[in-house]
Amino acid sequence: MQITEKEHQGLTYSFAVTVPASAIAQESEVELKRVGEKVKMPGFRPGKVPMNVLKQKYGKDVMGDVLQNSINNAVRQVVEEKKLRPALQPDVKITEFEEGGDLSFDMTLEVFPEVPALDYDSITIDELTVDVPDSEVEQSLERLARSRRHPHTKDGAAEQGDVVKIDFVGKRDGVAFPGGTGEGFQLELGSGQFIPGFEEQLVGAKAGDKVDVNVTFPTEYHSKDLAGAAATFDVTVHEVSYMHTPDVSDKMAEGFGFENLDKLKDAIREQLSEEFKRAARNKAKKQLFDVLDEKLTYPVPQGMLKLERESILKQVEEAKKAGDPELKDKSDDEIAKEYEKIAERRVKLGILLSDIGRSNNLQITREEISSAVMSQARNYPGQEEKVFEFYQKNPQQLDELRGPILEEKAVDFILSKVKRNPKPVSVEALMGEEEAAEAPKKKAAKN
Questions:
Q1: Angstrom distance (rounded) from CA 354 to CA 24
Q2: 3 state SS of 1
Q3: pLDDT score of 174 more than 80
Q4: 33-45: average pLDDT
Q5: Is residue 355 scored above 60 in pLDDT?
Q6: Cα separation, 293 vs 342, whole angstroms
Q7: Is 182 helix (H, G, I), strand (E, B) or coil?
Q8: Torsion over CA: 205, 209, 212, 216 (sign)
Q9: Residues 210, 299: one domain?
Q10: Which residue pairs from 409-413 have beta carbons closer than 8 angstroms and sit at least 24 positions apart in sequence?
């Protein structure tokens, strides 16, 4: 095989490659043998069809596969001989081929840049720490108690926050309309379950009362027939209840499966501690990425940058359609310029994290992949089995999960090497509004 380097500029290489006719013929025989093992031809046993017969009947049919396999083999040989690390699939264009002759093609590819070793001692990252205050535990206990609220029947008039058990029939011009009827409905007054104005008119009602509720449907109501229309609901109140919140006690703790209240408090404190550690780690990751973004000066493959930019702009376009207020007044040029920097940052960081993983032999365990699949499955309640089946039938899709796992391992590796500055902070400072760490996405897994 003949390899001629045509051009080398930055991260881009171009080669002219010629695969000799003998190699094409050899690959053709390999493909024809595969056909011969499966095909049934009169007068011949399977696998015993002569090569000349196969060539005459199927030679043109297999030529597409022959050329593709020959190109793939040649590309691999070029990459190995030139010791290149392609960032993406090479661009290949056949320049000359006639049956029985040589195959000539041009290939252009971008490679990953050389990533200089990080000077870990020159990087200092805050290590935020926070003690779990008793007030946080108490607030969690109160939330748990509220989650176990339940109605207790009461005498007297319904108040805001009470629950009324009602039957109702909605009418327009005295005629009931479809979907406007309900029986035995438990409605919490003030919950906003019904259209504006409905619940307020039931405040003061007692069990046994019949109430005419007059409302106007919102103009943006999902049913076009009712949008903006006036209607009357004939409501019968069967029962009035108040929402009882259980006391924070040993009994409540037992209801959550704990021996007593102290055990529940310990579990809450431990859970909050883990939550604060994750938040501190995310802040450290964001700070690390900001520092690295300033330090990393190597060029990035333009093909990877283009793909990342397109991915980001697609997400931005979807956000604009959804009415994201932050994008409302920005022009397309402003958005493109802003996210160009984000795209370059992501690609640059992704290359670094991949290089860290590769050079330090960071491995992904089967348990970590299984955990990632389980995490994906939890995003689709009731369809978990379909998620498992999808990954079983499409194992290549597991690469989409390996990338983020490897990135997080690389981040943890770097954080274990750089200097850390212990810094006690309050819960408010730790959990306050923060920018999400720029995830460099999953391309790094394929370096």
A1: 37
A2: coil
A3: yes
A4: 69
A5: yes
A6: 10
A7: strand
A8: positive
A9: no
A10: 409/357, 409/362, 409/364, 410/352, 410/353, 410/354, 410/356, 410/357, 410/362, 410/444, 411/285, 411/288, 411/353, 413/356, 413/357, 413/360, 413/362
- Residue 160 structural domain: 150-244
Cβ distance 142 to 248 under 8 Å?
yes
Whether residue 61 has pLDDT greater than 80? no
In this predicted structure, the answer to whether residue 332 has a pLDDT above a threshold of 80 is no
Q: CATH number, domain at 57?
A: 3.30.70.1050
Q: Considering Cα of 297, then 299, then 304, then 305, what sign does the dihedral take?
A: positive
In a domain, 391, yes or no: yes
Cα radius of gyration rounded to whole Å, the chain: 33
3-state secondary structure of 287: helix
d(CA 281, CA 127): 8
Amino acid in the structure at residue 102: D
pLDDT at 437: 41
Number of domains in the chain: 3
Same domain, 47 and 194: no
Instruction: With respect to residue 308, please indicate whether it lies within any of the assigned structural domains.
Output: yes
Question: In this structure, are strands 124-129 and 175-188 parallel, antiparallel, or unpaired?
Answer: unpaired
402 and 299, same structural domain? Answer: yes
**Which of 244, 269, 288 is the endpoint of a domain?**
244
**Can you tell me whether residue 372 is helix, strand or coil?**
helix
**Residue 252 domain-assigned (yes or no):** no
pLDDT surpasses 70 at 22: yes
